[in-house]
Amino acid sequence: MSSHLESSLEAGLTALKQEDYQTAIAILEVVAAKEQSTPSGIQASIGLVVAYGRSGNIPGAIALCETLTQSNNLQVRDWAVRTLIPLTIRRPSASAPVVDTGFVPFDNSLSTPDPVNFISPKELDNAVAPTSELGSAMVQVSRGQSKAHKINWRQAPRTKVWQPLPKSKFDLIPLRLLAFGTFIALFWVMRELLILVFGFINDILVKLPFLEPIQLFYRDTTPWLLALLFILMGISPWLLDWLFTNLYGQREIDREGLNLYSHEAVRVLHRYSHQRGWKFPKLRILPIAAPLAITYGNLPRNARIVVSQGLLQQLADDEIAAIYATQLGHIRHWDFMVMSVLLLVTIPVYRLYLNLSNLADGISLQFGRMLVGMVANLVYLVWCLLTGTALLNSQVRNYYSDRFGCDLTGNPNGLVRALLKIAIGVAGDIEKQQQTTWQLESLNILAPVGYQQSLSIGSIAPNVSFESLLMWDYLNPYSRWFTINNTHPMIGDRVYRLCKIARNWNIEPEIYIDLEQPLRVKRQSFLLQIAPFVGVPLGISFAVLIWLVWHLAFALKILNLKWIYEDWSFITGCLLIGFSIGTLMRINSFFPQIKGQEVQTEERLANLCANPSALPIDCIGVRLVGKLLGRRGTSNLLGQDLMLHCNIGLVKLHHISWGGQSVHIQDFIGRQVSVTGWFRRSATPWIDIQTLQSQSGKTINSPHPIWSTVLAVATEAWGAYILLRG
Question: Where are the transmembrane segments (predicted)?
Answer without folding.
Answer: 177-201, 221-244, 336-354, 374-393, 526-548, 568-587
